[in-house]
Sequence to fold (161 residues):
Amino acid sequence: MSGQSYFAADVPEVVLKSLFRKYDTDDSKSLGKREMLRLLKEDLGFEDDRAQACILMVDKDGCGEISFDEFILWIRTEKGFENIDDNSRFYIVQKAIELFKQYDKDGNDTIDREEFKKLMMSLNVSDDEKVDNALLALDKGGDGKISFTEFLAWLNWLPAQ
Fold:
């Protein structure tokens, strides 16, 4: 499956809105995990493991909901599919997800300060001020939590998207 063959920069926005609305079953103007999973599997032909990884990468702020802006940015960017379609990149993403989930103890797809402190302690950093400064540097959204995309950027295992 190659995502780039499905969508390109010239697909009319009305088509993408229609696809988005088709899966926004609760009319919340965002896609929850289950809704996004159905879209990825049913309309785009993703396998479950790739769909799950994709959801983490599309949800830039880690709120558990995919806004239309996040969705269209992902669809319109070739890089949006690259880490899923390319097997070696996808392997790296899977390893990053495994590491992320080790510290996301509550399973809410973000790493909060306490979870981050445990991560930093595993790196032999226990000073609260250093932990707070590192959290500030990683938390691009400014919500006090690290989303998977922020975590992946911090790992620097793949070129930035």
Observations:
- The chain is about 60% helix and 5% strand.
- Residues 4 and 78 are 6 Å apart (CA to CA).
